[in-house]
Amino acid sequence: MPTLPWTTPATPPAGAEVHVFASRFETRTLWGALRFFLRTPTIWRQVGRAPGAYGATLRAAPFRRTFWTLSAWESPRALKDFAASAPHGPMAAGLRGAMKDARFVSWKAAAEDLPLDWEDALGRLA
Predict the structure, then answer these.
(1) Nearest Cα to Cα of residue 77 among 22, 19, 124
(2) Would you call the peptide bond into 41 cis, given omega within 30 degrees of 0 as the criterion?
(3) Which of 120, 34, 42 has the alpha carbon at shortest distance from 85?
(4) Who's near 63: CB < 8 A, 6+ residues apart?
(5) Whether the Cβ atoms of residue 27 and residue 33 lie closer than 8 Å to each other
(6) How far is CA 70 from CA 30, 73, 107, in A?
(7) Average pLDDT, the chain
(8) Cβ-count burial of 39 within 10 angstroms (0-12 exposed, 13-18 middle, 19+ buried)?
(9) How far is residue 124's CA from residue 106's CA, in Å, rounded to a whole number?
(10) Residue 86 in 3-state DSSP?
(11) Do residues 52 and 82 lie in contact, with contact meaning Cβ atoms separated by under 8 Å?
């Protein structure tokens, strides 16, 4: 399963509390998985310059039609602004019909906990 390494667009202040967000997407078809997978580099570049982004990683199991994201943000507002902005917002809207299932979970963590642990995130998504 390919995993994009944790990227750190900005470093949070020491002692800060960060907003963590994890997601799991399952597409209806392999074609939907391919469409999701092909959009990943564009979104990955956007995360790298998104205001308030402290880190992100992605796991992909394209032949199982499943993708997971894990990210840390300055605030829920920073995440919401990223999600709504282009290219993420329009691309996500364009993929909605291809999705079989989507799960989301968020929690708070200490800046010192970055990079985040995949096992913890997968447990929270289960």
Answers:
(1) 19
(2) no
(3) 42
(4) 30, 33
(5) yes
(6) 22, 10, 11
(7) 96
(8) middle
(9) 9
(10) coil
(11) yes
Tokens of 4: 């994009």
CA angle, 67 then 64 then 8, to 5°? 25
Query: Exposed, middle or buried: residue 36 (CB in 10 Å: 0-12, 13-18, 19+)?
Result: buried
Please identify every stretch of the chain with a pLDDT value under 70, giving residue numbers as ranges.
Answer: 1
- Whether a cis peptide bond, with omega within 30° of 0, leads into 87 is yes
Q: Could you identify the residue written with the tokens 């992909």?
A: 60
Residue identified by tokens 């469409």 is 35
Question: 3-state SS of the chain: helix, strand, coil percent to 5?
Answer: 45, 35, 20
- What 3-state DSSP class applies to 106? strand
Which pLDDT does position 2 carry in this prediction? Answer: 86
User: 92: helix, coil or strand?
Assistant: helix
Eight-class DSSP state of 77: H
For 9, the token pair is 């667009």
**Cα-to-chain-centroid distance, residue 77:** 15
